[in-house]
Each structure stands twice: as C-alpha cells, then as structure tokens.
Amino acid sequence: MLDLDLVLAILHHLIVFSLVAIVFVELVSVRSGMDAAAVRRVAAIDAWYGILAGLIVLVGFSRAIFAAKGWDYYSHDLFFWAKIGTFVMIGLLSIPPTVSYLKWRRAGVTPADAAVANVRRYLWIELVLFAPLLAFAAAMARGYGLF
Q1: What does each C-alpha distance from 67 to 7, 47, 62, 64 come to in angstroms?
Q2: Confidence of residue 2 (pLDDT cuts 50, 70, 90)
Q3: For the chain, first and last CA: distance in Å?
Q4: pTM for this entry
C-alpha cells in the first residue's frame, strides 16, 4: 500500500531541490556577453521555474492538508508560516529576472552588463533565502514554533 505522506514528502523535496537547481543554473548562465541564443535558453529554463514553483505550492499544501500531521498542525506553527513567507519572498524576487529575460529575448540583443549584474543580484538573494527556508522546514517538522 502506498503511503500518501511519504509520496507527497518525496515529491515535495524533489521539486524544491529542482527549483534550487533551476535558480543555480540561471545564476551560472546569466553573464556578461550573453547572445540571443543564451537569452532564449535562460528564458526557457526560467519557464520551468514557474512550473516547479506552482507544483511546490500544490504538493506542499496537499501535504499539509492531507498527509500525516494535517492542516491543524501546520496552520498553528510559526515556522510553517515563516517558511511560506520566505517562499513568497523568493517568488517575488524571481519576477524581475523573468521580466528581464522576456525583455532581452524580445529585443534580441545582448543585455547590458548593468542589467546582467542586476539580475544576478536577484538570483543570489533567491539562493541565499533557500537556506532559512530549509531551516524553517526542519524546525517545523520537529514541532518547534507550535502555538
């Protein structure tokens, strides 16, 4: 018999780590002197960011509602809400890079160094925020932050 909690936990973790990988690949790919083909590749990679982020929300809330501990546990945990808030911040920080990729792709030109540096700054902040997100998840799973 398949354990729903286990399946959702595995899916959730795989998708979250895939999202981290996407941000890392974007950081490595976005650099000075990008040509139009590189911009198209980064824009295509970034589309996966949106897909994965949506799946994280779907699987994560399914896990919180239907899995072992249930919504009552998670909804009364400070670290759950800190984790959600951090994920929202990461998502909001992903908007400027996405808009830049779309502009660069539409223009079909090499982006200016200042624009590349700005996008890289957003990507670094996103990556750094995954550390507290994971710490909040670990604390939440162990019952810290219950109110």
Answers
A1: 9, 29, 7, 6
A2: confident
A3: 34
A4: 0.92
